[in-house]
C-alpha cells in the first residue's frame, strides 16, 4: 500500500472537490468540461508525452469520479452529456472498480535485478545458490539471465549486501487472491471479478492511479440538493480520520454538509458484538470447532471463493453497517442511507443490501467538506443520545472485534482467539488451512483457536484502501475517539444494546 500522502491521491481528491463544487453550484453540466484544462493549463510540465494526453487521461478520471466505467467510454461523447447521465442515474452501476488503461504503465514482468551495490564478492552466494545457474559475474557485477531465471528469489535472500532487489508489479504483488493479471495482448492489467474480494489493495498500491473506484458522490449530493432525507452512517474508522476534531464534531460537519441525520455505526457494532458473543457460546455448546467473525466483507467473500471449507464457520451475525442501516430505516422508512467508511468491500456489501442505498469513502466525504468549505474542527459538537462502548468503536482496529466478543462472555475461559491481521497471500493460506481443520482433512493442533478474527487490511479498518490519514496516526486518533465511548458495565459485562430503545431515545 502506498503512503496515503502521494500525488495520485491528491489528484483524485482535487477532481472530487471540483465535481462537488460544480454540482453544489448547479453548474456540473456546463462546468465539468473545463476541469482537465483547468488542472493542466498551458505551459504545465507533462507527465506523459504532452499536456494534451495528460488532459485526456484527466477527462477519463473525471468520468470515474462521476461514477462511470471507463473501459467502454465514447470518446465523442461530451463530459457534459456524461454529467447529465450521472444526475439522472437512479442507482450506481456495476462493477465498482474501473481500469484506466492509458494510465497503466504496463509494468514489466516481475523480476529480480542486481544493482550497482553488488561487490562481485568472493563468496558469491547468489550464484552458488541459484538453482538454474542463471547468474554470472562479469564487469565487477552480478548479471541475471532472464531466460533462465525462475524468480525464486534465492539470490536476493543470500546476498550479504542486499544488492539484488525484486522489481514487482505493485497491483499484482498486493492482490492476495491473484485476481489481477497482465493481459499479454494489451500489456495492461485486468481484474477477474469472479476471483476479486474487493479488498482494494490493487487500487491503493497502483502508483499510476490506474485502478479506480467509481464514485457515488454525485448521486448522494443530488439527493441532498433535491431535499430528500439523506442520513449518514459513519464507520468507527472515520472517527479517526480528521486530526484535531473532537468527538461529535464529525456529526456537526455531516449535518452542515446537508445530511438530515447522522448515525454512528459503532451503535451497530455494539449490536454485532452482543449477538456474536451469544452465537459463539451457542456454537461451542453444540460442538462446533470454531467460529469466525463476519464484519469484514472482503474476508467473507474470500472464504466463499477461496476457502469454501470454512464457510459454515462464518458468524451468521450481520455487520455493524447492516444493523445501523436497520436502525436508520426503522427510525425513518423513507430515508436514503449513506454509509461512510474507509473500505471498498463495504461498497460491494452495500450493493448486496436493500438497506444501504449508497457507500461513500472518507475521501469523498472529505471532498464534500472541502467543496462546502466546512472546517470540521470548527463545527459544533453534536453528540447522539446513545454513547457506543469503547469496544464497539475499537472494531476499527485489528483485535478489536475479538476483544468485544471476549468482554461480553460470562466465562471467557472457553475462548481461544486468534487474529489474522491483513489478508495477503499468506493470510489466504491460513484461511485455507483453518478450512481443512474444520473439514477434518488436517489435524487440529492442541491450541487450535475457536474464534478467528480476520481483517483484510493490516491494522484494521483504519488502514483501509480509502483512508486519508496515515494508519499510525489514525491508530492514535482512534484510541482517543474510542476512549470517549461508554465504559458502563453490568456484572462486569457491557449492557446489551437494545435497537428499539436506541430508536426511541434518538427520536
Report the C-alpha radius of gyration, rounded.
25 Å
Helical coverage, percent range: 25-40%
Query: In whole angstroms, how far apart are the ends?
Result: 42 Å
Mean pLDDT: 94
Q: Count of DSSP helices?
A: 21
**Number of structurally distinct domains:** 3
- Biggest β-sheet, characterized? 4 strands, parallel
Unreliable runs = none
The side-by-side strand order for the widest beta sheet comes to 10-9-12-13
Topology:
Blueprint (H helix, E strand, L loop, with lengths): L6 H18 L3 H4 L3 H5 L11 H15 L13 H10 L8 E3 L11 E4 L10 H5 L5 E4 L2 E4 L9 H5 L5 E4 L2 H5 L5 E3 L6 E3 L9 H5 L5 E3 L3 H9 L4 E5 L14 H8 L4 E4 H21 L5 E2 L4 H10 L13 H12 L4 E6 L3 H7 L6 E4 H10 L18 H4 L6 H7 L10 E5 L3 H15 L11 E5 L15 H12 L16 H8 L1
Parallel strand pairs: 9-10, 9-12, 11-15, 12-13, 14-15
Antiparallel strand pairs: 1-8, 2-5, 3-4, 6-7
Helix pairs in contact: 1-10, 1-16, 12-14, 12-18, 14-21
Polypeptide structure, described:
It contains 21 helices and 15 strands. The chain is an alpha/beta fold and 507 residues long. The chain folds into three domains: 1-87; 111-167, 2-Layer Sandwich (Alpha-Beta Plaits); 220-506, no CATH class. α12 packs across α18. The longest helix has 21 residues, at 265-285. The mean pLDDT is 94.
